[in-house]
Amino acid sequence: MAGLELLSDQGYRVDGRRAGELRKIQARMGVFAQADGSAYIEQGNTKALAVVYGPHEIRGSRARALPDRALVNCQYSSATFSTGERKRRPHGDRKSCEMGLQLRQTFEAAILTQLHPRSQIDIYVQVLQADGGTYAACVNAATLAVLDAGIPMRDFVCACSAGFVDGTALADLSHVEEAAGGPQLALALLPASGQIALLEMDARLHEDHLERVLEAAAQAARDVHTLLDRVVRQHRAELRGGHRLVLGAGFPAADPAHLHVGERHGLHHGGGAVCGRRPCPGFCPGLRRPPQEVGGSASGLA
Amino acid sequence: MLQKREKVLLLRTFQGRTLRIVREHYLRPCVPCHSPLCPQPAACSHDGKLLSSDVTHYVIPDWKVVQDYLEILEFPELKGIIFMQTACQAVQHQRGRRQYNKLRNLLKDARHDCILFANEFQQCCYLPRERGESMEKWQTRSIYNAAVWYYHHCQDRMPIVMVTEDEEAIQQYGSETEGVFVITFKNYLDNFWPDLKAAHELCDSILQSRRERENESQESHGKEYPEHLPLEVLEAGIKSGRYIQGILNVNKHRAQIEAFVRLQGASSKDSDLVSDILIHGMKARNRSIHGDVVVVELLPKNEWKGRTVALCENDCDDKASGESPSEPMPTGRVVGILQKNWRDYVVTFPSKEEVQSQGKNAQKILVTPWDYRIPKIRISTQQAETLQDFRVVVRIDSWESTSVYPNGHFMCEMPVNTPESPWKVSPEEEQKRKDLRKSHLVFSIDPKGCEDVDDTLSVRTLNNGNLELGVHIADVTHFVAPNSYIDIEARTRATTYYLADRRYDMLPSVLSADLCSLLGGVDRYAVSIMWELDKASYEIKKVWYGRTIIRSAYKLFYEAAQELLDGNLSVVDDIPEFKDLDEKSRQAKLEELVWAIGKLTDIARHVRAKRDGCGALELEGVEVCVQLDDKKNIHDLIPKQPLEVHETVAECMILANHWVAKKIWESFPHQALLRQHPPPHQEFFSELRECAKAKGFFIDTRSNKTLADSLDNANDPHDPIVNRLLRSMATQAMSNALYFSTGSCAEEEFHHYGLALDKYTHFTSPIRRYSDIVVHRLLMAAISKDKKMEIKGNLFSNKDLEELCRHINNRNQAAQHSQKQSTELFQCMYFKDKDPATEERCISDGVIYSIRTNGVLLFIPRFGIKGAAYLKNKDGLVISCGPDSCSEWKPGSLQRFQNKITSTTTDGESVTFHLFDHVTVRISIQASRCHSDTIRLEIISNKPYKIPNTELIHQSSPLLKSELVKEVTKSVEEAQLAQEVKVNIIQEEYQEYRQTKGRSLYTLLEEIRDLALLDVSNNYGI
Questions:
Q1: Acetylation among the record's keywords (chain A) (predicted)?
Q2: CA dihedral (A265, A266, A270, A275) positive or negative
Q3: Engineering a disulfide at B761: which of A64, A116, B586, B661 sits with its beta carbon 3.0 to 4.6 angstroms away?
Q4: Are A114 and A69 in contact (CB under 8 A)?
Q5: Which of these ranges, A262-266, B338-342, B698-702, has the smallest mean pLDDT?
Q6: Of B218 and B588, which is predicted with more confidence?
Q7: Cβ separation A302–B21 shorter than 8 A
Q8: CA of B30 to nearest chain A CA: how many angstroms apart?
Q9: Is the pLDDT at B537 greater than 90, yes or no?
């Protein structure tokens, strides 16, 4: 891909976005009934599925139990068909382990683990298609899944990547842009407080530019938050309204934020109330922030 | 709001797999249009330059136009240009970064009234590529679609011209939308910018070059030749009979078109092909070069072609000959090359004008090989200009299937001597060398038709009355630098091979037959040895060695020189040098020459006598001269007639060799190349002694002196043949003379038995022998050593020299062997055609020189043939001679005695053959399927054969005394290489011979090598 012009003189990126624009985000929550919480997200062509179990008792060795907080267990995997070249990706390879650790770190910072001492929360993330920004997609999917599971969090964790090309910071890198080998920054942000849950940087970048790239990533993460917020609200609204949509109809392309809610969700919700083992969410996104008009935002992608 | 689309790309990975890649593609409603006519400037959010508002139209170039005519679009006069993103991307992908950057700079430049419209990101302009639609079509469609949108976007207020090179697009879109015109670029320039001359000119030149490119690519489609098949496929194909293996022979006279594949071995047997396979054209020849072992696929019969019969020039290309060819013969095409026969080729650089016409890319130059059969070779060189007038040696590196010509590289240059650029004596050399052109009468004596004259002679009287004898040898080392390519090649060849009718040169012919050859009337470099001799006793007083410049005045041949020596001046008419002279100067010059030859002979006799005193041997080898008529058929076989001048010249050469040997040995006692001749083993002489006893002679073989004396005495006054035979037997008993390095032998072993000299080397034939080149270098080094000058270049160390000597000795043996075989072959061929029963010539006189249990060995002086005749045939019948002395086969028995054999029939008749008896023999040819044919002798009478020309033989007998001293040639061990080569030639010749009775035997050999008639006796220089 050498010689590919990542940012044209007119300010367009390879796929037609401008520097600060995100790829199209589509998401839905509660895709699996058997799990406590699940979510599916598409960021451009990067597609990830997250499933959350817990909080539940420690499985396996009890020695791992933490006396003061819940254990967050994250597992990452990617499908063999996730990249252009089909490749076997065994569990427990370096990349998956690293990603699992990063996710764990991220969510330990966001979930109110002290509410569930001596218990365990499992987060499983699988990448179905990798087209750049897998970490970000995983974090965002997991956030929705955790929310779906009703586990109390300090805030959404919104993640986004950013790169730096020709003196311009690019938000939400696609695979082509990542493969070009420039600096790449991954940021997981708690948008309300502006706290950073995780920051990772590949390749070298001059200190002077870091601020701008970080700002671009933060802005992108805030935009992601806006979108995820809408997804959650819509999900809640649908649950309340008892909407039942048939799965498998595909996404209406025109409305990225459109939600498909499985029929199980009603049950799920009810089940949540019935089983009662789950503590009441300490956080309700709707109460903290008024709904925001996402589409009007200059940099947001709707 | 962005819209997401997906683009599917198929990319090829480095491993060659295709990779399906899905890329997102986002479309937006508002893309800056950069037009002042924009109805919603806020939405379009223009930043940067706008198109000027005073244009009459906007012009949108198609992708092809942007690629090809960017230079014209750069003209500042052209305004209102909208480059579509699609077109820009096409430039980027297909024309590379440089062109794209030019375009980018153009767009950035505020002075140019042009903008880029990102049509592919505009949601109304973007058109996805349809399934099966070609990239080009899609690009044109996208651009047109964007143009239409743009027109409407500007509220139809500004007409838009889309320029394209795609005729189809013009037809399709030309009248589709009002206000959007689609025309060709040329048309556009003509209509809108008729005054812009520069643009028009540029446009024409671009069009022109593009057309040329297209023509080229149409002809070749990128690949000039089909790929060769892999080796396994070829081997399998040959086995299965699908392909045929053979050697490619390019027709010398139609090198471009015709080549033939001579079938090899087994393959011809299956595919009942009798003739060769024609390979018609360069394309079918598929990069194979003359001599390659190729694999051929036969074409279907309807594509077979005939051999061209019409005469044609070699230069003409494929299309030229339209004449009807002869009847079709098997035609094929080359599918693979098993063995490449690429070697180094002598090539000529094109002239200056040609270089220029070959285009700007002057680093690559097409050079033309000297050999017609080799295609032009493309070489890269910076020195094309300087090498203009040289011939150079190039080596072929590769021949890609995409290239019309093979690639090669320049190896070394060769001097040129052509009428256009004659070789001249360089002034620096003139300074360094002694100039003998004015002061000395230099002449050469060689066999008739000799081209490689490497020795000349001179003799004159000095002021003090003494004589000065000069031997001038071609200065080959001046042209052949040590370790140059020529030198290395010459070293491997080691010697020039003389066959009965041709020779295989050691040096390239420009050197051997031209620049080094001391031809008459031209200036040449030489290495000379000059002795000052006492006027009366011919004692050597002084000797001088050095480099000289000479101009040989006469190139005489032996017979003429002999006539002059004998005082028969009528031969003058045969000497070309005398032809244009008027009577008076002719007379004067002739006298001078005759004096010189006479004096030389005198000197030679003296030197010879001195050597004879030490025991020099006169030996006898049978030499046959093959005479060919115009059609290259064997006309006659004639044994060499030895003349006194032969001896004179040989004696001078021996003298020179001897003195040079002394010189280099003194200077380099451990690393001089000399020639030794070890004394023979006594037991080998037993046969000679036995034979001589039969005639009542005693041969004393204890030393070379006694041997020489007793051989001289063993002369039967009634039969000169006896002496010849005895000498020849003595020769047989000798061991071979060898080159050696003085460092590896004791000094007493240096002795030369045959010549009776303590030191001897080879110096006088550097054109023909590599050893002489080495000796020349040694001599030059010795001279500079004497002058206390630095020795240029490294001499061989003792070890290296020893190694080299071994190699040269091997090659010499091989050369002698092949020479002998070639003579035998020609003897066979001479009798082949003749019917032994009727032909007069097949019956000849023979002399018995050895007795065996069931037959005798015969020597036939008339033809120089030695062979066996059986006295008992396969049925057990023995020969008997009736009263009319005619022989017939009858039952009986043979009885062998010491020097006679008696055949007794059951009837009691008996006939006895003694040694040296003359009998009449019939010569016939015994054909052999597996081996070369042999000559068969049959005794048809026990009386000498009376023929008119026996007298001729007797007449020449008094000259026997002065017969040429011959190098000892014992039958040698079979030298592998020469043997193989030879056998091949013989087989091929016979094949050809049997196939085409009546046609010349030589057509085939001619293809292998230019026929060079040369006398074999030339190597008198021992």
A1: yes
A2: negative
A3: B661
A4: yes
A5: A262-266
A6: B588
A7: no
A8: 12
A9: no
Dihedral class, residue A276 (left if φ above 0, else alpha if ψ from -120 to 50, else beta): left
Expressed in angstroms, the distance from the first to the final Cα of chain A is: 29
Asked if residue A189 has pLDDT above 70, the reply is: yes
Whether A184 and A239 have beta carbons less than 8 Å apart is answered as no
- DSSP 8-state assignment for residue A206: -
Quick one: pLDDT band at residue A290, thresholds 50, 70, 90? Answer: very low
Separation CA A103–CA A107 (nearest Å): 6
- A179/A166 Cα distance (integer angstroms): 16
B733-748 burial: b if 16+ Cβ within 10 Å, else e: bbebbbbbbbbeeeee
Give the residue carrying structure tokens 């699609």: B86
B955, pLDDT greater than 70:
no
Classify the complex by whether its ipTM is higher than 0.90, answering yes or no.
no
Backbone angles phi, psi at A127, to 5 degrees: -95, 120
- The lowest-confidence range among A231-245, B381-395, B543-557, B892-906 is B381-395
Closest alpha carbon within chain A to B33: A10
8 Å CB contact of B27 and A9: no
pTM value > 0.90: no
Q: Distance (Å, rounded) from C-alpha B491 to C-alpha A5? A: 61
Q: What is the pLDDT of residue B948?
A: 46
Beta-strand relationship, B114-117 and A71-78: unpaired
Please judge whether B2 and A253 are an interchain contact, meaning their C-beta atoms are less than 8 angstroms apart. no
Out of B3, B97, B121, whose CB is closest to A12? B121
Both tokens of residue B470? 């000069």
Distance CA B474, CA B528 (A): 9
Contact assignment for A9 to B108 by CB distance below 8 Å: yes
Q: Which residues of A29-67 are buried (b: 16+ CB within 10 A; e: fewer)?
A: bbbbeebbbbbbbbbbbbbbbbbbbbbeebeeeeeeebe
Q: Phi/psi of residue B857, each to 5°?
A: -100, 135
In B605-680, DSSP assigns E strands to 624-628, 634-639, 673-676
Q: What share of chain B in percent tops pLDDT 70?
A: 78
Residue A174 near chain B (CB below 8 Å): yes
Identify the DSSP state of A153. Answer: B
Beta-bridge partner residues of A57: A119
Q: Residue B225 in contact with residue B287, Cβ under 8 Å?
A: yes
For chain A, the average pLDDT equals 80
- The pair of structure tokens assigned to B275 is 């003739």
CA distance A79 to chain B (A): 16
Q: Is A10 helix (H, G, I), strand (E, B) or coil?
A: coil
Please give the pLDDT value at position A43: 93
- Rounded CA gap, A5 and B632, in Å? 75
Q: How far apart are CA B647 and CA B737, in angstroms?
A: 20
Cβ contact, residue pair A302, B108, below 8 Å: no
Q: Give me the count of residues in chain A.
A: 302
Residue B22 and residue A21: Cβ atoms within 8 Å?
no
Q: Place A31 in a pLDDT band, splitting at 50, 70 and 90.
A: very high
Nearest-Cα distance to chain B for A24, in Å, is 7
What's the confidence (pLDDT) of residue A242?
A: 59
DSSP run (H or E) holding B768: none
Residue B98's H or E segment, with its range, is helix B85-108
CA atoms of B133 and B137, how far apart (whole Å): 7
Do the Cβ atoms of B547 and B487 come closer than 8 Å? no
> Within 10 A of B153 (CB to CB), how many other CB atoms are there?
22
SS3 call for A269? helix
CA B178 to chain centre: 73
Q: What is the pLDDT of residue B638?
A: 64
Contacts of B46 in chain A (CB under 8 A): none
Average pLDDT, stretch B852-857?
Answer: 79
Which residue, among A277, A9, A167, A274, has the nearest Cα to B117 in the 3D structure?
A9
